[in-house]
C-alpha cells in the first residue's frame, strides 16, 4: 500500500528511540556538497554562550545536504527536513502542536517556477490549482506563570531546491535561522531559565513562495490568535560580522514599546538597526497583518549570495548565530513581554 506524504513523515517521527536517527547518524559529510568546511567563526574556543557552535554547525550541515535537495516546499527534500525537525523536537521533549496531535500542519501550495531577478533566483506562480502540499512543523513548550499566553519563535525551513542542475543549499537562508532556533529550543527545554509564557516553536514552510506557511497558520490557527502576544522570527542570520544585525517590522512608527528588545539591547554586544519591510519581507509580516507585534532578525548583510547557489555553510559565522540566539533566549524569559499581550 502506498503511503501518503503525511503518513510517511509521521511514521518516521513516531519511531522508537532506538529507531530514531541521531544527529550524528543523520549527518553524512560525504553528502554535504562541501569540500571541507572553512570556518568563519571567531578564532579561539567558544566562550560566553550557552548555545553550542558545534551543534549549530551540525544542524546546518544536515539541512544543506544534497539529499535534502535545497528544501523546496512540496518536495521530498522538504519532507526530509520536516521529519528531521520533528525528530529533534520530539527528542528534546517538545509537545506536538500540529494537526491531529502531530508536529505537522499541512497546507496546499500553488505550482511555482523559478526565474532570475536582480541576480537572485525567485519564485513566480504558474498555476493556482495545484494539489501539492507542504508542512509547517510546530511544537509547544509550556510556560510556568502564564501558560495560556504564547510567544511564537519561528524560522522558515524551506529554500529554492534544485534549479538548472544547481543545488541551492540555502545555508544562510535559512538553515542558519533553523539551526539557531533548534538550539534555543534545546536550552528552553532544559529549564535553566524561568519561562513566564508558553512558547510555540514554529518552522514555516513555503516562505520563499510568498510567506505561505505562516499565512496558513494565522488563517487556520491551532492556538487562538488572541492568545498570541508576539512573534520573533529568525531569517538569514549567519553572514557577516558577529555584532551586526537588522530587524524588520512592518511599520516602525507603530511598533509597540518593545521593552524587552530595548532592555536587552542596552547591555547586549549586538548592533541592531530597525528597518521597515517595504522592499523585502519575511514571516513576521502575516502576524503584523493580524495586529500581533512581530519582528524578524537578520544579519546586516543578509543579501550576500542570497538566492544563489553560493549560499553555502562555509561562509556562516556560528559565533554570530549563537550571539543572536542568546539575545532571543533573554527576550523570551522577560516578564515585560506581558505588555505586548495588551497591544
What would you note in describing this structure?
By secondary structure, the protein is an alpha/beta fold. The protein has a single domain, classed as Aminopeptidase (3-Layer(aba) Sandwich), CATH 3.40.630. Helices cover 29% and strands 26% of the residues. It is built from 9 helices and 11 strands. It has helices at 5-13, 23-26, 53-63, 76-92, 171-190, 212-219, 259-267, 285-289, 318-332, and strands spanning 95-96, 104-117, 120-141, 146-156, 161-163, 166-168, 197-204, 228-234, 244-249, 271-276, 294-299. Strands 1, 2, 3, 4, 7, 8, 9, 10 and 11 form a 9-stranded mixed β-sheet that branches. A hairpin with a 2-residue loop joins strand 5 (161-163) and strand 6. Helix 1 (5-13) runs parallel beside helix 4 (76-92) and helix 7 packs across helix 9. The longest helix is centred in the middle third of the chain and has 20 residues, at 171-190. It is globular. The model is unreliable at 15-44 (pLDDT under 50).
Amino acid at each position: 500500500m502506498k503511503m501518503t506524504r503525511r503518513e510517511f513523515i509521521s511514521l518516521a517521527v513516531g519511531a522508537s528511540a532506538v529507531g530514531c536517527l541521531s544527529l550524528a547518524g543523520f549527518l553524512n559529510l560525504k553528502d554535504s556538497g562541501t569540500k571541507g568546511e572553512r570556518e568563519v567563526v571567531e578564532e579561539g574556543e567558544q566562550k560566553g554562550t550557552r548555545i553550542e557552535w558545534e551543534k549549530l554547525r551540525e544542524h546546518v550541515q544536515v539541512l544543506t545536504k544534497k539529499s535534502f535537495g535545497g528544501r523546496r516546499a512540496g518536495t521530498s527534500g522538504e519532507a526530509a527536513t520536516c521529519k528531521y525537525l520533528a525528530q529533534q523536537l520530539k527528542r528534546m521533549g517538545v509537545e506536538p502542536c500540529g494537526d491531529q496531535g502531530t508536529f505537522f500542519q499541512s497546507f496546499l501550495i500553488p505550482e511555482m517556477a523559478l526565474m532570475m531577478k536582480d541576480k537572485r533566483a525567485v519564485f513566480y506562480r504558474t498555476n493556482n490549482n495545484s494539489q501539492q502540499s507542504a508542512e509547517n512543523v510546530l511544537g509547544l513548550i509550556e510556560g510556568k506563570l502564564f501558560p495560556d499566553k504564547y510567544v511564537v519563535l519561528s524560522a522558515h525551513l524551506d529554500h529554492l531546491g534544485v534549479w538548472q542542475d544547481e543545488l541551492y543549499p540555502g545555508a544562510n537562508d535559512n538553515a542558519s535561522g533553523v539551526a539557531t532556533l533548534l538550539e534555543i529550543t534545546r536550552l528552553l527545554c532544559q529549564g535553566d531559565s524561568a519561562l513566564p509564557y508558553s512558547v510555540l516553536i514554529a518552522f514555516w514552510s513555503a516562505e520563499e513562495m510568498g510567506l505561505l506557511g505562516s499565512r496558513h497558520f494565522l488563517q487556520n490557527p491551532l492556538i487562538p490568535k488572541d492568545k498570541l502576544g508576539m512573534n520573533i522570527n529568525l531569517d538569514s542570520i549567519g553572514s557577516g560580522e558577529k555584532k551586526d544585525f537588522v530587524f524588520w517590522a512592518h511599520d516602525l512608527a507603530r511598533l509597540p514599546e518593545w521593552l524587552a528588545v530595548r532592555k536587552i539591547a542596552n547591555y547586549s554586544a549586538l548592533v541592531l538597526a530597525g528597518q521597515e519591510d517595504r522592499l523585502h519581507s519575511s514571516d513576521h509580516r502575516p502576524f503584523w497583518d493580524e495586529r500581533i507585534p512581530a519582528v524578524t532578525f537578520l544579519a546586516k548583510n543578509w543579501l550576500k549570495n542570497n538566492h544563489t547557489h553560493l549560499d553555502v555553510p562555509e561562509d556562516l559565522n556560528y559565533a554570530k548565530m549563537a550571539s543572536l540566539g542568546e539575545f532571543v533566549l533573554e527576550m523570551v524569559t522577560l516578564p515585560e513581554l506581558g505588555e505586548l499581550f495588551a497591544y
